[in-house]
Design a protein that fits this description.
By secondary structure, the chain is an alpha/beta fold. It has two domains: 23-308, Ribonuclease Z/Hydroxyacylglutathione hydrolase-like (Metallo-beta-lactamase, Chain A), CATH 3.60.15; 323-366, no CATH class. 17% of the residues lie in helices and 29% in strands. It has a nine-stranded mixed sheet, with helices on one face. The chain starts with a helix and ends in a 7-residue tail after the last strand. The chain binds zinc ion (2 copies).
């Protein structure tokens, strides 16, 4: 075949072959995979773009590999590594060997002294990028209903720490009124080697629908200020049978139970047993929401539960927070003020109490 004919043949193949959409179904899907003791989730946008939030534990990569194959993933557009522990980035070589990385692998930058980290760096190659606070990337960018993923914080969120868990990248997924927060092993208590990172991050997140419970529901995550600020409708606890850490812990589960948060566990773990009124040992959990919908679903096995999004009444998702402002401005606003909409997300801060050193914008046009 001449080169020209083979090119023609190739272009015919490309135009005839179905687009590589994974299993796009017109909804936002987030698959919180059962990866044993570790984290691994894959987001599929309504039009079939994919983003992974961690990729599983180096000790058990057959789990994410098999699941990604089952759901028909053919490629991964973005990968966000929360941090460099082997239960979060351990399957990067296998995953990207089979489902090639297309656009970018975002992480906290820097390095970590382990073979698993070196293998991750090799696997993501030139696609590796250091995430920056406030950075937003968009899936289905040309669609009227895009999905955005914002890097809300990383590397301790201004608190000096070298604890790898404390350094976790905080990602916020938005799709219409729906929000989900995913942040690896972020810490919430100043104890032992850990710092309280959650409290400072909470006001940057506000109310959300889905919380990927930090640090496999260890006793060092999910503090009171975090949970009362983000008020998740559901939580996902990713912990493995037989883990040696006692995850999930009673302390963490109580915080969530007391706040009325229904929890989906990927496995029973090796800590506190599930409370049948609040905890579902579900295996892989798939969260889905259609564009413009006021409910989202959580599917596991052959069961599906439905939950309302926070602002199904038409009030803003951040209705619980009374004030908002740009971190670069000397004024602050009532949260309903229309001006708030024009503040760049990376500069936007919210709280229930006015900020110090700023003056109230008195004549706010309301939304
Ligand atoms: Zn972990
Ligand atoms: Zn960790």
């Amino acid at each position: 075949m001449t080169r020209r004919i083979s090119l023609l043949f190739l272009s015919l193949l490309v135009s005839v072959a179905p687009p590589a959409l994974g299993q796009a179904n017109g909804k936002l899907q987030i698959h919180f995979m059962d990866v044993g003791q570790g984290d691994g989730a894959v987001l599929i946008s309504p039009l079939g773009e994919t983003a992974m939030f961690d990729d599983g534990n180096v000790k058990d990569c057959s789990k994410p590999m098999a699941y990604l194959q089952t759901i028909g993933i053919s490629k991964v557009d973005y990968h966000i590594a929360s941090h460099y522990h082997s239960d979060h980035i351990g399957c990067a070589p296998g995953v990207f060997g089979k489902f090639p990385l297309q656009k970018a692998a975002l992480d906290r930058g820097g390095s970590y002294n382990s073979k698993v980290f070196q293998d991750y760096v090799t696997a993501v190659g030139s696609k590796r990028q250091t995430a920056t606070e406030g950075e937003i990337f968009t899936l289905d960018a040309a669609s009227p209903n895009p999905v955005t993923i914002q890097i809300v914080a990383l590397n301790g969120n201004g608190i000096t720490t070298t604890n790898e868990n404390d350094l976790s990248v905080v990602a916020l997924v938005r799709f219409g009124k729906f929000r989900a927060e995913i942040s690896g092993d972020l810490s919430g208590y100043h104890t032992g080697n850990y710092e309280d990172i959650e409290t400072g991050v909470a006001s940057k997140i506000g109310q959300i629908e889905v919380y990927k419970v930090h640090h496999h529901c260890s006793q060092y995550s999910t503090n009171n200020s975090w949970i009362t600020t983000i008020q998740p409708k559901i939580g996902i606890v990713s912990a493995g049978v037989g883990n040696t850490y006692g995850h999930p812990t009673r302390e963490c589960l109580e915080q969530l139970h007391n706040a009325g948060v229904k929890l989906y566990w990927t496995e029973q773990g090796q800590g506190e047993p599930p409370d049948p009124t609040m905890d579902i040992v579900a295996g892989t959990v798939v969260v889905q929401i259609a564009a413009g919908a006021t409910t989202f679903t959580a599917t596991y096995g052959n069961k599906t539960d439905t939950y309302p999004v926070w602002d199904s009444s038409g009030t803003p998702a951040t209705a619980g927070l009374k004030y908002a402002w740009s971190k670069n401005s000397g004024v602050y606003h009532y949260a309903e003020c229309r001006t708030v909409k024009s503040i760049k997300p990376e500069n936007l801060e919210r709280a229930n109490t006015p900020p110090t050193g700023k003056t109230l914008h008195q004549l706010c046009p309301l939304q």
